[in-house]
Amino acid sequence: xxxxxxxxxxxxxxxxxxxxxxxxxxxxxxxxxWYRQNxxxxxxxxxxxxxxxxxxxxxxxxxxxxxxxxxxSLLITASRAADTxxxxxxxxxxxxTPLVFGKGTRLSVIA
Amino acid sequence: xxxxTQNPRYLITVxxxxxxxxxxxxxxxxxxxxxxxxxxxxxxxxxxxxxVEVTDKGDVPEGYKVSRKEKRNFPLILESPSPxxxxxxxxxxxxxxxxxxxxxxxxxxx
Lengths: 111, 110
Fold this sequence. Notes:
The complex is a heterodimer. By secondary structure, chain A is mostly beta strands. Chain A is 0% helix and 54% strand. At the A-B interface, β4, β5, β9 and β10 of A face β4, β5, β9 and β10 of B.
């Protein structure tokens, strides 16, 4: 039951540029989260945005949520080579229900 | 240090040989889950557990078993592994909906 779909599948940018990744989902959600995965390692939670929120910031990360379009975006500003990773969105339909992950966006930041 | 640990990290085995991947968390989380990650298919949930002695199937439970006899441990059991279970496996525990992932177990079934 794949819920979120990230776009683009892969993104390559120069260090210092901004990176924007999008996530679309199909059904109503409780929360939407973004996770990061360095190659072959465990996912790490980045940020959670609730269905009644529209925007959230955490350091160089900015997440927006548009529930009318069932979409979210993750913006990484002033990217660094260390930001190279895969980024996944995950949604849950309601409290205490399993998270459903998208297939991820592979970001490459070139120094 | 708050963490989720998995063992083994790497395993090569043969078809039909029963194996167990252990998972342990030290954060006193009630919710734990197992995922598998495959190229092109993303992360898919195998089983989850909302508390001790409470487990439920995720999206891809066939061929797997789990148990939750105590809060900190959530082992994944493959009674008769097959090559289509070759994958990268992650255990996770959750607090307030946020998942904390283990480092992963790369399993190859020959």
